[in-house]
Amino acid sequence: MLNRYEEAARKAIDKFRRSAAMAAEMGLIPYKSEGGRWVPSPCDGNGWWTGGFWPGLMWQLWAMTKDDAFLREARRTEALLTEELRVFRRLNHDVGFMYLLSCGADWKLTGDEQARMDALHAASLLMGRFNPAGFIRAWNGDDQQGLAIIDCMMNLSLLYWATKQTGDPRFARVADIHAATAMREFLRENGSVSHIIEFDPVTGARVRELGGQGYALGTSWSRGQAWGLYGFTLAALNTGSPDCLAAAERIAAYFIANIRPDGLTDCDFCQPRDEERLDNIAGAVAACGLIELGGLTGRERYRAAALRLIDGLLDRCADWTEASCGVLTRCTASYHDDGAGRHTNITYGDYFLVEALAKLCGTDPMLWTA
Ligand code: GLY
């Protein structure tokens, strides 16, 4: 008999087999599901930072089933993403998310040599964003030269991957320097993390913190906490660094203390108490990080917290009906509406939900490490 996670994985396979066919027919990279149809990213076309999660989801499902319909859909959207390497101007630090889960996954699962080259190309672009003052630059605007964000901890995996692939230590060295800066400047005393820090792009001196996608300046945007938790865990997995592991455990303790009794995740852990604003993506990302952290440390409490999160999502926010294309509901892009989605299905929530299920079912190909 299947356990509840295997059963959920089975339902995800069935639902995404149908909705992958719809994505191919519509000729887009799904961003979110609305009114029973896929909707593309709100801006920057296929260069938007979320483009890798759909092919990553397809690769996770292919690893579970070996059904070539998933491989074909992963490759169809991987081709759209590699066109963006040539466009170039829309790419930013999120090339880690975009290309590790598409080209890197293709290489890892099938050994495709062109996919490996494309992932190395992306890693070179990410390394090129490094400011020797001590951080990886997040975005491209003239007024954004000094901005770095906690989300980038996830993108460092592409750099560690590139060093393992090539033997060239520069990629990993850049990642290590950025991680040390993030540990020093983003990690707060209570174990929470800031979303955005501005540095002087010449000296590297800290200028100020910005509120980013959270409720307000100095609060704790939950997805940022999840990126920090999983990002430092991945840095520890990739390098064996005890400092990264300690940072991950501090963020994990803060996150776990803020899990709601129903297992769902508020959009910001400091939002007004009478407000029902959720971001279930944060819960799915954190669950993945906690499962890995449990494996790294041998501490059962991390896996137990991950199961609380996944059980909350499966009990209350998983839509298995044919009325929609995606699964995870009540995902929110930013606390203050930015038009990218509020309390809706968003594809990267589905990616991390399925990655967590894959970990619990023993099929996760671990796309974040070489
Ligand atoms: N990297 C941006 C976000 O998590 O919305």
Summary tags:
globular; 55% helix; mainly alpha; 6% strand; binds glycine; 8 strands; 370 residues; 3-stranded antiparallel β-sheet
Backbone structural class:
mainly alpha
**Hetero groups bound?**
glycine
Helix count from the secondary structure assignment:
12
| Spatial separation of the terminal alpha carbons | 33 Å
Instruction: Report the sheet with the most strands, covering strand number, pairing sense and barrel closure.
Output: 3 strands, antiparallel
Order of helices and strands: HEEHHHHEEEHHEEHHHHEH
Overall pLDDT score: 98
Q: What radius of gyration results from the CA coordinates?
A: 19 Å
Are there runs of 5+ residues with pLDDT below 50, and where?
A: none
Spatial order of the strands forming the largest sheet: 2-1-8
Question: Proportion of β residues?
Answer: 5-15%
Q: Strand tally, please?
A: 8
Bin the helical content.
40-55%
The best one-word shape is globular
Mind explaining what this structure looks like?
The chain is mainly alpha-helical and 370 residues long. Helix content is 55%, strand content 6%. The protein is built from 12 helices and 8 strands. A 3-stranded antiparallel sheet has the order 2-1-8. Strand 3 and strand 4 (135-136) form a beta hairpin. Helix 2 (53-65) packs parallel to helix 4 (95-110) and helix 2 (53-65) runs parallel beside helix 12 (347-361). The chain is globular and about 55 Å long. Glycine binds at residues 49, 151, 213, 223, 333.
Secondary structure blueprint with pairings:
Elements: H1 4-26, E1 32-34, E2 37-39, H2 53-65, H3 68-87, H4 95-110, H5 113-127, E3 130-131, E4 135-136, E5 147-149, H6 152-166, H7 170-185, E6 196-199, E7 206-210, H8 222-239, H9 242-257, H10 280-297, H11 300-316, E8 345-346, H12 347-361
Antiparallel strand pairs: 1-2, 1-8, 3-4, 5-6, 6-7
Bound molecules: glycine (GLY).
